[in-house]
Amino acid sequence: MTCTAYNTVAAVIEDQGRFLMVEEHTENGLVAFNQPAGHLDPDEGLLEAVIRETREETGWKFLPEGIVGIYQWRVPPDGKTYLRFCFHGTCRDHRPDVPLDTGIIRALWMTHEELVSRQPHLRSPMVLRCIDDYLSGVSHPLSILHNLDDE
Fold it and tell me: What pTM did the predictor assign?
């Protein structure tokens, strides 16, 4: 039995009690809320991916400061597995004129309470879990990442 895991990155960005989120169309035609997140491009490191995905999905430049965690989620019923590397940090240099990625409806700032009330519309259970872990103070230094391709 083989297991294909899809490596993804996500950014938790808080500003005055609100989190930068995206409203997006899913593959099955629904609308969901998610952190700026996505898959790694070929030959791309985790930090490059999360910075790129945040810019492409929100127009903001993301400055990673730490790692909230690494999350595994097996999607029922097909069992597709996602590994999410979730970073936290700040953003700056907003470029509202940047066209957003295909499928992204808009970027918006939401409170934790708004996210909890929209739980059935979150992209995955990882969305709220990442934010809850961040709010409880979970943070690991970026120095735990090692890209052996760069050595």
Answer: 0.94
